[in-house]
Amino acid sequence: MDFSILAAGASGEGAVPAWAMLAYLAAGVFFILALRGLSSPATSQAGNRNGMIGMAVAVITTLVTHNIANIVEIAIAIFIGAIIGVTIARRIAMTAMPELVAGFHSLVGLAAVVVGFAAWLNPAAFGITDAADQILAVSRVELGLGIAIGAITFSGSIIAFLKLSGRMSGSPIMLPGRHVINLGTLVAILALIGIYTVSPEGGAGQGYLVIAVALLAFIIGFLLIIPIGGADMPVVVSMLNSYSGWAAAAMGFTLGNSAMIITGALVGSSGAILSYIMCRAMNRSFISVIAGGFGADAGAAAAGGAREQRPYKQGSAEDAAYMLEQAEKVIIIPGYGMAVAQAQHALREMGDKLREKGVEVKYAIHPVAGRMPGHMNVLLAEASVPYDEVFELEDINSEFAQADVAFIIGANDVVNPAAKTDKSSPIYGMPVFDVDKAKQVFFIKRSMGGVGYAGVDNDVFYMNQTVMLLADAKKMVEEIVKSLD
């Protein structure tokens, strides 16, 4: 390869030297190493460091190789953004991490829209014009797609944020004829981008085409997310992550920035792959989820029905402590309730005490436990739970038949047998833990009045071997720890 070749710059003021392209390539390698590192809790810190190094290389290279109008203003903006980011990272609770991620995705989408409009309004500054000072046809396609994907990401992420934070109901909101509306809106967006691409520069109504694309994309992002229920929200978070990556990649083409193209493609493809893997783990159709909750009507109706009052057994911390220390094997299933109560540290202490008494302790993590992929893994890692004690569903589900105790803390939908038996349930078909095969089940939840995020009752509450521990999860586990002394 001849590295003396110069690549066209995004500023339209010259060429980007070959060393800059090598720097962008190096940044891309660091981003790949970051993704690899983040695939395991044991290497996640190294993954974060690699990502930070890659981003620093990309930003510095861009600033050095382009004629910046006002470097002081950019430095101030970077400083303000850094302060805000550090402050949020230090203050945000782990329970709020899913909605924080959704909120950050919305900012990526909005940035893509803003950059797209800036390129449309001043194309010469972006180096995307031909000899006649008209926007290149290929740049119009990139610009239109970037604005559309960014707008979808923005509005979809806002709805996800509202649902995850409890400011909006997590239940599916079904509009009549929504699939026809969604498909028609998407077709209209693509048609408008096509018309904009072939229409002459400065032609009548061309400006309205770009604005119409943005408005319709904002609407379709909203329409795609509101019909998706709580059980599928972890997939939505990873899917929106993918959208934000593709929006960044499209803007990278418009800007002529290799680092943005590489980064966007990595984020977009990894998010799409993760969404697909999670859909398989939930026995969901990937197309059904991203198309806005195909097939969710029956489940939503079932979830909204009246709950039957049924008898159950209630126990105390002393009861649980006695049975736990008598057991040979205990499997702990954490869920979002554990995160809300911030009970992970007390839970790790309970596990340590049980191991001291010769009890085998394992943690079972469902692919969609919590509100985002890996939510429970992060919480357990924060509490210093050994990585070799944490198992995914497919690796541990067969062991419940040999378990003396299944200890469920704050989980609900991921242990609900309705997923295997009730075709009208919104979680039907989702693989769940076989806790009903354990000799004894302890189930911690605040009260019998609450249900899981999918909004359905759970037969596990009423099984003969189940004892309900109705209390705040952290307080209950702390009482169990005291009883184990």
From TrEMBL:
Transmembrane residue ranges: 18-38, 50-68, 74-93, 100-121, 141-162, 183-199, 205-226, 259-279
Domain NADP transhydrogenase beta-like per the UniProt entry, residue ranges: 22-482
Keyword Cell membrane included in the entry's annotation: yes
Cross-referenced Pfam families: PNTB
Single GO MF annotation: NADP binding
Subcellular locations according to the entry: Cell inner membrane
Catalytic activity reported: NAD(+) + NADPH + H(+)(in) = NADH + NADP(+) + H(+)(out)
Quaternary assembly: Complex of an alpha and a beta chain; in Rhodospirillum, the alpha chain seems to be made of two subunits.
GO CC term (a single one): plasma membrane
Organism: Erythrobacter sanguineus
Species lineage: Bacteria, Pseudomonadati, Pseudomonadota, Alphaproteobacteria, Sphingomonadales
Protein name as catalogued: NAD(P) transhydrogenase subunit beta
Function (record text): The transhydrogenation between NADH and NADP is coupled to respiration and ATP hydrolysis and functions as a proton pump across the membrane.
